[in-house]
Write a structure and sequence with these properties.
This protein has 445 residues and is of the alpha/beta class. The protein is 51% helix and 9% strand. It contains 18 helices and 8 strands.
Length: 445
């Protein structure tokens, strides 16, 4: 009777012609047949991520191939073994076949309180919520990548952690990192010569969640590493989820191909919640804390905090803490006292318009605002026009196509190039920095 090692070597020979060379070299070459008992066949693999990849991607093919080699129906299991390159005389060197794989616990970096059940859905975030839920249920098959953008405090982090928590519960491997963490680990991997370990961590996971991607601007080496990470994960149908405070088109990236890849799947925005959503958030938070609060108090807080969910929740928590300290029942009077030193959100600061920015730029450069809309290529007018485009995008979030129309009918790509030039120079060119700062100072407040 053939040993497990001999059977597996024969199976590997058959598998070698059924999968591409890269997959064979990466996932199958270093495996070995460990045991064959009854109808149970155990395959040893050197690394945990290889075991998981074989279970999810090649299990059916491996089983079919082994059945053909052995000539009878079997069940195939994979286990990580300390030294799968040598023959095992006993089961001591490799764990026995488990009745069921161990349940993978959620990543410790994911906040367990951030789930889909605790996320309040409204018109401002409904599409982002539906897309996130779809990604969590079927990673790699829907909206890959999923790119969620919006201002701080609107729920991007909540959705990202909800995806990770649910996917982890469903048995998927999740890797989460902020763009700063990704950059730091990349730099340390180069310094400490651990680039292979770095690649394995970020390129073998089922879901890669990366937050605040806007902070990789101005870091070309990090962008290049992320570009290759993106390609490997996407080609393997592994899911990527990205958050940012701006859409991909507004990110001045040295690796321009990375920007286009961000737009491959679904780009969706979370916006400031409307009144109904803000009230629903307050009701939900108060209910979880088991605090009875009058509707008038909720409306008072909701009208004061119109733009930021985080501040909305913070105001509620402040009121609850204040009433406990005063040992009184929450009331409208107490709410006014608790929040009296907080500026209401509905008294918004002045927001510059595209026209006011054009006028300020023209005044600064001592040219007419109409000259910014012409095709003139004078150096001063060109610089002024590029700065105007940059400021309009930064201060108004005006769509690129609309900016181009405002400036004499320029196309979207021309506007984007102008924006990226000034964005790049803001960290390197003191003359550009001075011009921009002076224009900003001249805008009304």
């Amino acid at each position: 009777m053939r040993s497990a090692k001999e059977i597996w070597e024969a199976a590997k020979g058959a598998l070698q012609v059924q999968v591409n060379r890269a997959n064979y070299e990466t996932w199958l070459k270093d495996t070995i047949g460990v045991s064959y008992q009854g109808n149970q066949f155990l395959v040893g693999t050197p690394r945990a991520f290889a075991k998981e990849w074989l279970e999810k991607r090649l299990h059916s093919l491996v089983k079919k191939t082994l059945i053909n080699v052995i000539g009878q129906d079997i069940e195939v299991h994979f286990q990580v073994c300390p030294s799968p390159s040598r023959v095992f005389d006993s089961q001591e060197a490799c764990p026995r076949i488990l009745d069921s794989p161990p349940t993978r616990s959620p990543s410790p970096k994911l906040n367990p309180r951030y789930t889909f059940d605790t996320f309040v859905v409204g018109s401002s975030n409904r599409l982002a919520f539906a897309a996130a839920l779809g990604v969590a249920e079927e990673p790699g098959h829907k909206y890959n990548p999923l790119f969620v953008y919006g201002e701080s405090g609107l729920g991007k982090t909540h959705l990202m952690h909800a995806i990770g928590n649910q996917a982890s519960e469903n048995g998927f491997e999740v890797t989460y990192a902020s763009s700063e963490q990704f950059t730091n680990e990349f730099i340390n991997a180069i310094k400490e010569k651990r680039t292979e370990e770095f690649r394995h961590k970020f390129r073998s996971t089922d879901l890669f969640l990366i937050e605040d991607i806007q902070f990789i601007t101005g870091k070309p080496q990090t962008q290049q590493s992320l570009f290759h990470t993106f390609n490997e994960l996407h080609n393997a149908n592994h899911q990527l989820v990205i958050t940012s405070d701006r859409p991909p088109e507004s990110m001045p990236l040295a690796e321009s191909k990375l920007q286009s890849r961000f737009e491959w799947g679904l780009v969706t925005q979370v916006q400031s919640p409307d009144l109904e959503t803000r009230l629903a958030i307050l009701y939900t938070k108060a209910d979880r804390q088991k605090v009875l609060i009058d509707k008038a108090i909720f409306e008072f807080i909701a009208h004061r905090c119109q733009r930021n969910v985080r501040e909305l929740e913070g105001s509620l928590n402040r009121l609850i803490a204040y009433t406990k300290m005063m040992r009184k029942t929450p009331s409208l009077e107490l709410a006014e006292q608790a929040l009296q030193d907080k500026t209401p959100d509905n008294i918004l600061p002045y927001t510059p318009t595209p026209t006011s920015i054009l006028n300020a730029v023209a005044d600064h450069f001592k040219i007419s605002s109409d000259s910014l809309k012409t095709r003139a290529r004078d150096n001063q007018i060109t610089l002024a026009r590029q700065i105007a485009i940059y400021l309009i995008r930064e201060k108004t979030n005006y769509p690129l196509q609309a900016v181009g129309k405002l400036l004499g009918g320029r196309d979207r790509s021309t506007v984007l190039q102008s924006y990226q030039k000034i964005a790049a120079k803001m960290s390197t060119d003191p003359v550009v920095q001075q011009n921009v700062n002076q224009i900003l100072t001249s805008l009304p407040t």
